[in-house]
Specification:
Blueprint lengths: L11 E2 L11 H5 L4 H10 L24 E11 L10 H18 L3 E11 L5 H17 L4 E8 L5 E11 L13 E6 L4 H10 L4 H4 L3 H12 L8 H7 L2 E5 L3 H12 L2 E5 L7 H9 L3 H7 L5 E7 L3 H10 L4 E8 L4 E4 L17
Parallel strand pairs: 3-4, 8-11
Antiparallel strand pairs: 1-4, 2-5, 3-5, 6-9, 6-10, 7-9, 8-10
């Protein structure tokens, strides 16, 4: 992947510069570092929110809305781990922001803003960074999550991104991971496994399951890996009706297992009830082994939630009104652990229930 300009110096903040990107004589006399120039050229134009203070300060000023609690989340993405080094820079930018917005959605929060830290190898391709910044700014505007500042540094390693996102929920409205209890239904939004199959398609396009797909189905799976869809419209319904929620980032089965462990109860997921896209269903029909990737592969960024059984109809109606489908795929019980039932109705054991860095 193209990397940063030889003039980049590590350790600074996202502050605008008076450098070669400014034409007046005084700017030329007080030219900043290469890092300052990058900030001025690529990041200041997308940090237009008042609370970013024009990126002239070392920190942003954020005032929580009255009657709200702050919700904070951070995700890091590394080339070769979370995305391919040759992915389009616009796609990398969108994924970096959206995975954080997914966390806010799961907590019932609306976005307030975000901070970006980016570590770039040398030398920089201005076209790459320009496409990255433009897409980041467009998504920040689309999802109402302004870029408020951050940090730019150089690295001898791969491109590394870290975004800290801030959100707000009405006081007491935070949806925890720890609230599931016996007698709850387990639901998930959207469809599961598309991104994991998109990754497998990238790695092994000749697998039988993928040879059975149309060009349109392959493109759908590839897009789901590149461009997560944060379920922010579901936030209000989660606040009103969910006992527990988290986003599905590491794998459906593993993430529900984490929720059960944190909540101190047991759960059951039925593979036959897990919602699949047409592309995922076709791939599994052609190659049943791909079911394991669907259930444990991760990168879905859908919402996993526990809802009291008597609240399921109104929760589903609220989700539908928000334009998001939710599906009951299991339930909780007294005990511990998470049981998985296969398509044949028998217990199913996966070699890997979720992705883990270590």
């Amino acid at each position: 992947m193209p990397g940063p300009d030889p003039g980049i110096q590590g350790g600074g903040d996202m502050r605008p510069a008076s450098g070669p990107f400014f034409s007046d004589a005084r700017s030329a006399m007080t030219a900043g570092s290469g890092e300052d120039d990058i900030i001025a050229r690529y990041f200041r134009p997308i940090a237009t929110h008042a609370e970013a203070r024009g990126l002239f300060d070392d920190a942003a000023l954020l005032t929580p809305p009255p009657g709200c609690d702050l919700v904070l989340t951070k995700d890091a993405l590394v080339a070769g781990v979370h995305f391919f080094a040759d992915d389009p820079p616009a796609s990398i930018a969108r994924k970096a922001l959206r995975v954080n917005l997914s966390d806010l959605a799961a907590k019932g929060a609306r976005p307030l803003g975000a901070l970006l830290a980016i570590a770039l190898p040398r030398p920089m391709d201005p076209e790459w960074l320009g496409a990255f910044a433009e897409a980041l700014g467009a998504d920040a505007e689309r999802f109402g999550c302004p870029i408020l500042g951050g940090d730019t540094v150089s690295t001898p390693g791969p491109v590394t991104l870290s975004i800290t996102a801030f959100g707000a929920v009405p006081t007491g409205g935070f949806v925890p991971r720890t609230g599931a209890a016996p007698g709850h239904a387990l639901l998930v939004s959207g469809t599961i496994g598309d991104a994991a199959l998109g990754l497998q398609l990238r790695l092994a396009p000749d697998r039988p399951g993928f040879e059975a797909l149309s060009a349109e189905q392959k493109a759908f799976l590839a897009d789901r890996f590149l461009h997560p869809q944060p379920r922010l419209p579901l936030a209000e319904a989660l606040r009103d009706h969910a006992a527990a929620a988290m986003d599905v980032s590491d794998g459906l089965v593993g993430d529900f297992a984490k929720m059960m462990s944190a909540s101190g109860c047991g759960g059951l997921v039925r593979a036959a009830q897990v919602p699949l896209s047409d592309a995922a269903a076709a791939a599994i029909a052609a190659e049943p082994a791909l079911l394991a990737d669907v259930l444990g592969g991760g990168d879905d960024y859908e919402i996993a939630t526990a809802v009291p059984h008597d609240a399921v109809p109104v929760f589903r109606a609220a989700a539908q009104a928000a334009g998001i489908a939710v599906t009951v795929i299991g339930e909780t019980y007294k005990g511990d652990g998470l049981d998985l039932v296969g398509l044949d109705g028998q217990p199913l054991y996966l070699d890997r229930r979720s992705f883990s860095h270590f």
